[in-house]
UniProtKB/TrEMBL annotation:
Gene: lpdA
Record PROSITE patterns: PYRIDINE_REDOX_1 (PS00076)
Protein name per the record: Dihydrolipoyl dehydrogenase
Lineage start: Bacteria, Pseudomonadati, Myxococcota, Polyangia, Polyangiales
Active-site positions on this chain: 444
Protein species of origin: Sorangium cellulosum (Polyangium cellulosum)
Residues given in the record as NAD(+) binding sites: 180-187, 203, 271
Cofactor: FAD
Top enzyme class: oxidoreductase
Cofactor note: Binds 1 FAD per subunit.
Reactions catalysed: N(6)-[(R)-dihydrolipoyl]-L-lysyl-[protein] + NAD(+) = N(6)-[(R)-lipoyl]-L-lysyl-[protein] + NADH + H(+)
GO molecular function: dihydrolipoyl dehydrogenase (NADH) activity; flavin adenine dinucleotide binding
Length: 468
């Protein structure tokens, strides 16, 4: 039996950085992956979807330059070439993960792992044999999450698809219905809407993107409607019937009334579930909660001291950057360093059009905590750089403690929101006050000035908009 210091199960954005960091810390490390390295994120999630999103922006922008005096004709989309380009990026990145693991001295094994003891793992190899391996210091579960399927909308790889298939379409559906107005539904729904699909969104809850600042969501919602999309909220997707011409009649219930919407493709994006089944957890006694997540302490340890869990499988939010940070922390812990999960905020970035990015508390969350708040808001419509970019929709909102002026949360909807949120995350980590942001000189002309102005606005001192 081969013996390692640490075994990491899964080579996604939680597992592979964990294995790399372990190897950097001179731990003999094995990373086991049953598919390509990179996990959902690199193979069919974050990166492939962002490739499509940037292509969609370019496609839209190239046709919308008229007001800037740029007239482009004959813009054509070649979905085959788009897919080939996207697949090239995926290949480069997954290959890069292999090289990084190797370069740092971690071993990558292709196979399916089962935990058979507090320090032991069996790996079913592609040739049908089983290899037994041992970890003297720790086993890290980094198995991620899998797409939830609705029984009445089973994926058929053709008309009823999940996100995995949706990032690989080589034909643009004329009519696309998305079940689930969450992150995936809106990001991918808007990509195909930009490419010309007639988009319908069916969301079960009263609002899209539940939990996100509703003012931010409204801006995205308005964009979907402006492009001719339809949104049903508080609606149930009951089932579907295939029509003779290959289209799909989707039966939905809104306000107690049933109706049928005929489309070509249905994207089911109703969430992800932790991949904690089939790992042998019951046998070794690792606690799994009712939803399938593996609870851990601040060091990433499960109830079994030699077994750790990171990323989606260890609980929400299901975000790659949270998984990576947890993976790095657990690597340090296994290597004997003092490390623990000790962050103020996990920023979120939603790549809709325009983007939404958030860090810290929303107004509603702060109020629910009984905090007295002041709110500053700066619209991109008042910002020179945004005007020069011809992207003036959206705003930056800063929520702060009314008395102390400490920043509690930042919510951005608009151009480059995902890039700008890092300043907000740093502000929260450093316990910044409104003055820290407003007194920091932000270069002009940049989108970042909107953060400075929003902080000033919360104190009644914004320069380029009226203060209350
Ligand atoms: P989600 O939880 O964001 O959204 C799912 C939506 O589907 C919810 O609004 C829910 O109310 C709705 N829903 C559930 N059942 C339904 C039904 N039967 N009919 C209609 N609506 C229904 O999940 P997702 O969009 O599938 O994304 C999965 C995970 O991946 C999320 O946790 C998300 O954080 C993560 N993700 C993040 C990003 C990003 O950060 N940019 C991008 C993609 C995915």
């Amino acid at each position: 039996m081969k013996t390692y210091d640490a075994i990491v199960i899964g080579a996604g954005p939680g597992g592979y950085p964990c294995a790399i960091r372990l190897a950097q810390l001179k731990q003999k490390t094995l990373c086991i992956e049953k598919e390509q390295p990179g996990g959902v994120c690199l193979n069919w999630g974050c990166i492939p979807s962002k490739a499509l999103i940037s292509a969609a922006h370019l496609y839209e922008k190239s046709q919308a330059g008229g007001s800037m005096g740029i007239k482009v004709s004959g813009v054509e989309l070649d979905p085959e070439q788009l897919q080939n380009w996207k697949e090239g990026i995926v290949k480069k990145l997954t290959g890069g993960v292999r090289s990084l693991l190797k370069g740092n001295g971690a071993e990558l094994m292709t196979g399916t792992a089962t935990i058979v003891g507090p320090n032991r793992v069996d790996v079913a190899l592609p040739d049908g044999s089983v290899e037994q391996v041992e970890a003297t210091k720790g086993i890290v579960i980094a198995t991620g999450s899998t797409t939830i399927e609705i029984p009445t909308f089973k994926f058929d790889g053709d008309a009823i698809i999940g996100a995995k298939e949706a990032v690989s379409l080589r034909r643009i559906p004329k009519r696309l219905l998305v079940i689930g107005g969450g992150v995936i539904g809106l990001e991918l729904g808007m990509v195909y809407q930009a490419f010309g699909s007639q988009l319908t969104v069916v969301e079960a809850l009263p609002e899209l993107l539940t939990g996100v600042d509703p003012d931010c969501t409204k801006v995205v919602e308005k964009r979907i409607l402006k492009r001719g999309g339809t949104i049903y909220k508080g609606a149930k997707a009951l089932g579907y019937e295939k029509q003779k011409d290959g289209s799909v009649g989707v039966k939905i219930q809104v306000d107690g009334k049933e109706q049928t919407i005929v489309v070509d493709t249905v994207l089911v994006a109703v969430g992800m579930r932790p991949s904690s089944k089939g790992l042998g957890l019951e046998k070794v006694g690792v606690t799994v909660d009712q939803r399938g997540f593996i609870p851990t302490d601040r060091t990433g340890r499960t109830n079994i001291p030699s077994i750790y869990a990171v990323g989606d499988v260890s609980g929400p939010p299901l975000l790659a950057h949270k998984a990576t940070k947890e993976g790095e922390i657990v690597a340090e812990v296994i290597a004997g360093h003092k490390a623990e999960k000790d962050w103020v905020a996990i920023p979120g970035a939603i790549f809709t059009d325009p983007e939404i990015a958030t860090a810290g508390l929303t107004e509603a969350e702060a109020k629910a905590k009984g905090l007295e708040i002041s709110v500053g808001k700066f619209p991109f419509a008042a910002l020179g750089k945004a005007m020069a970019m011809n992207e003036t929709e959206g705003f930056v909102k800063i929520v702060a403690d009314k008395k102390t002026k400490q920043v509690l949360g930042v919510h951005i909807v608009g151009p480059e929101a995902s890039t700008m949120i890092s300043e907000a995350a740093l502000s929260l980590e450093m316990a910044a006050f409104l003055e820290d942001i407003s007194l920091t000189i932000h270069p002009h002309p940049t989108l970042g000035e909107s953060l400075m102005e929003a902080a000033a606005h919360a104190m009644g001192a914004a320069i380029h908009i009226a203060n209350r």
